[in-house]
Amino acid sequence: xxxxxxxxxxxxxxxxxxxxxxxxxxxxxxxxxxxxxxxxxxxxxxxxxxxxxxxxxxxxxxxxxxxxxxxxxxxxxxxxxxxxxxxxxxxxxxxxxxxxxxxxxxxxxxxxxxxxxxxxxxxxxxxxxxxxxxxxxxxxxxxxxxxxxxxxxxxxxxxxxxxxxxxxxxxxxxxxxxxxxxxxxxxxxxxxxxxxxxxxxxxxxxxxxxxxxxxxxxxxxxxxxxxxxxxxxxxxxxxxxxxxxxxxxxxxxxxxxxxxxxxxxxxxxxxxxxxxxxxxxxxxxxxxxxxxxxxxxxxxxxxxxxxxxxxxxxxxxxxxxxxxxxxxxxxxxxxxxxxxxxxxxxxxxxxxxxxxxxxxxxxxxxxxxxxxxxxxxxxxxxxxxxxxxxxxxxxxxxxxxxxxxxxxxxxxxxxxxxxxxxxxxxxxxxxxxxxxxxxxxxxxxxxxxxxxxxxxxxxxxxxxxxxxxxxxxxx
Amino acid sequence: xxxxxxxxxxxxxxxxxxxxxxxxxxxxxxxxxxxxxxxxxxxxxxxxxxxxxxxxxxxxxxxxxxxxxxxxxxxxxxxxxxxxxxxxxxxxxxxxxxxxxxxxxxxxxxxxxxxxxxxxxxxxxxxxxxxxxxxxxxxxxxxxxxxxxxxxxxxxxxxxxxxxxxxxxxxxxxxxxxxxxxxxxxxxxxxxxxxxxxxxxxxxxxxxxxxxxxxxxxxxxxxxxxxxxxxxxxxxxxxxxxxxxxxxxxxxxxxxxxxxxxxxxxxxxxxxxxxxxxxxxxxxxxxxxxxxxxxxxxxxxxxxxxxxxxxxxxxxxxxxxxxxxxxxxxxxxxxxxxxxxxxxxxxxxxxxxxxxxxxxxxxxxxxxxxxxxxxxxxxxxxxxxxxxxxxxxxxxxxxxxxxxxxxxxxxxxxxxxxxxxxxxxxxxxxxxxxxxxxxxxxxxxxxxxxxxxxxxxxxxxxxxxxxxxxxxxxx
Lengths: 475, 475
Description:
Chain A is of the alpha+beta class. Helices cover 35% and strands 27% of the residues of chain A. Chain A has 14 helices and 23 strands.
């Protein structure tokens, strides 16, 4: 029953990226398809990545003064109609409960696609005075958006996420919160996921339904497409007016609060896969890898090998490394392939000859390089190597991305740019017609505004440019 | 605006326990009612207790070899019909999605009331060989059971829980798992929640719909009623046959697996409130208290008081204590009442006279006692006191409970026993008629079997007793 030949062939990443993605998520057991169309099961190996993401993000939310709470899954349908843009954006995607406890409900209930409405309804009860502000609450939850075409992690009818919802006394404070959380996401994406991101404001067309302004962070995948990896919304008084979130201010006047919301989801796992993966499969950043190092014995029956593996495992665990000692009876070659496909950052090969010479062999997944290393102090070597891999993965991704940002002047330039797998910077006059024209012609959408205006004219109509915009094809 | 008089009066715990409970959960801001009948919002103070519960339990699940995963919320209705007892038990409580994405669904979907069916469906794909076993997976999730009468934490249409689902090659291993997880729950209830529990097997009437055997842990509330605080089910081959979970065994034969499931929920927060609370409000065990110590300045404007409070706060934080320095402008008396109501285990009062004498005043919530304590080494004093409070709360609860377990011989004894707020041990012949008779006559239900048979005859029919059973009125 021992496995000698590695049979989990993946589709070619260069020529068939979509199939490569599907192969990787299934064969590494990150995910499986649920029985209902468009749903996914997050398997233990995938869920462990999510747990690491949660731990890192949750600590950052708490360090910035937020606490967690939990709001109900089911929202009265009537809540959606209170904010006009919001209902237009979300009603078509909603799953609706019409019966419960054997009876038809008086009012149908929506499974939350996002929680601004139900949380707004509660905040209106909790906020009375300026002393109750700010309210800084986050929720970890499942949400549901009924999508026509779905892909594991990227777009599924149900997904897991966090949604922060805050209320502030002033516009300034709410805007500051919006930008602060965008900054938290960016720092997290770069330092934990090793994914460089481009952050900026979204166009009216691409903003969150009901927001005054949406800020997004965009990550480049290896096929040159963009993945929206997180968003932070300044909601102004839109939801506080719709849900009557009012407070008595210091000056004795009754005022509406200013709200924000911000979220990231299990989509981030898709981002990790497509930002770092290669022909062999996953390449996981050490900070979120469920297994950071795997120990593989070579010629395991030779004296001392298994003992040395067990010792090394204990040393690594003591040093805080998440380690697996693969003592199954599969061949070493099979194990190499399997753990490489699963993206484990470091492999330690322990063989009798190396041991005699006082060495082990260490393989790093990010560069697919291996070499001898002293057996003594191996835990410290691995800890230091994990740090180096984390850093190198971010740097490599940054170099890859920066090479694929092109600045163009016209519609043809946008088309050629995105066909070549680039993010394209182009001038835009600010009108919806030109934005739509770009989408129709190039299948690229406006991702975010660049920080500075770098163009004089709009790529489409040639009128004066208001913004330089990043355009890309997107997930 | 500063508050001098404490106005959050609670109903009397002795004479109106149900209202006291409702007052406590609302006024301490553990929870609020959601807009849909029977739903609750778990507010930050309540959710922080749940987070502490999760952290403690999750570590225990992982230490016993389990990993987390996530399965879909929506289950095809047809899945329920595959296990006859299961559908009978859960179908009446199910909330049903009939429309999604603007269309009527071909098959209605249930929001999970529990996940044996959908997880069984996935396990049938994942399990092929004895090498794939055991499967030891846990899920943290929301579930929904449409209930007629609801109370926050105790019975709500939606609640949060964990559900473990395992598959084993043999009956013995599955039974061992069932008992092991019951043991994990018991150790957790006693050492973390400070709640002594009685564990044992449930009657056929009270068991989980679809189980071969259900084991429960029962906790005594201060009104003498029992709260089922957790259950562990041995499911035999019922679900593996219904969902075709088969494996090729070592001997070459194709066999059905043996499965278990086990769960605890946000109900545990209700257990904490009613097992420990008193006339002043909550009394939280230090291990799950969101705030373990509060620092209250006395005569805050006097020199050195605020500085000393800030220093003490820093010292406590460095010692790993979850601490709040209440520097609001409410009066000290108001603060005392509020933090006592919120159940904070330790209060440190810092006043100028005490400081001069090198002291602070320390109040412990469990005994409502206070006394002077040296300012020097206050962090160590508090850490040690928290340990003592944790231990004392369990011991006090155990004494209270043991005083209220009575052994009786007949139906009248059961009635008098439960009317007096006791758990009653009585003999039972094992027949459903006698069990129903007890319920009708006394409003008490069979909670769990006692470990040993201590009765010769059934309390109802007088025939030979098969079991000694704990009867109680229950939440």
